[in-house]
Protein 1
Amino acid sequence: MPSQIMNIGPVPCEENAAQVGRPDYEERSRRECQVFKRMLERLHPVPADCQAGLVIKSFPHDFGSYREVCVRYEDTDPIATGYAFDLESNTPAEWDAIARYELIWLERLEVLNRAVRKGEMSQDDIPAAFHTEQLPALTAEHTFSQLLAAFPLWFSA
């Protein structure tokens, strides 16, 4: 069956995305796309028996490759095609509270892992919340402030 790819974007349309060519692009774009994909899956789940799914793809650019979240769908499946076009036209403008929390959590995890790799701290010094490298299970009814209170992101080195 013919598969199509529709670019959705690297982040919600009114948010600033990592810029290709910047020193932090690889790390930041990977994190942003991961969180954006999770947010889209949460807000716009793929219907059952639908031949569609969200993927993160890299594309060539004059200054290197760039990443985007895309929807891959079978264009012979009307439900999949409808899902893809509905997702494109209803892409969130901003990060929701869960996504904002996840972005910061993943950034903190990267900082901790980098410090361990550089020998600036030991694996035992990593706070327990970051040991599994799994994002906490968060629920949508909480504000960003409530998420921070329930799942603190600060730590002392």
Protein 2
Amino acid sequence: MKKLIAGCFAILFMYGVPQAWGHEHTSGMSMTEPQTGSIYNLKDTWTTSEGKNFQLTELAGRPVVMSMIYTSCKEVCPRIVEDMKKIERTLPPELVGRVQFAVFSFDTQRDTIDKLKEYAKAHHIDTPTWLIARSDAGAIRRLSIALGMKYKKLRDGDFEHDTLISVVDQYGVISYRVNNFTHETDETISAIKKMMKQ
């Protein structure tokens, strides 16, 4: 019995205590640490919902609020997008239009360009300050490692993943991260303000 209890604690220590979302996602997953340096060192090509190819370095020059989702997700991913939209709504007037919001899909099979375009329109993120993009499995893996985000494809084609939102500065360096839905936007806005003063 003691060995069984010890084994359970060992598992909890290694993987963390999962939070019950009533869904296939969890924000209690263990996370890898993000790589140091700029995410703009990644040279992969991504494609937006408008069919435009680009590299991450093209986002340089202003703060970017970003996350990774998949559009077939019905519960957690829409909440991530709504959290990002809340950050946008909370921006002070002088920062409106000066912050980029970017969502990257890790569903290479189902998230076609047309699917991304449909998702952007449905969630009202089809504006100049937003982009939603897709790429190949290698690019997705490299970006997730750089951001420190974990995801895992399940047998049914859905994903288990972190609820991570990252803010990178104008040089592509991660300055702020949050991995839950309980945070207030004040800290995020403060981090963005600090970046704009650099």
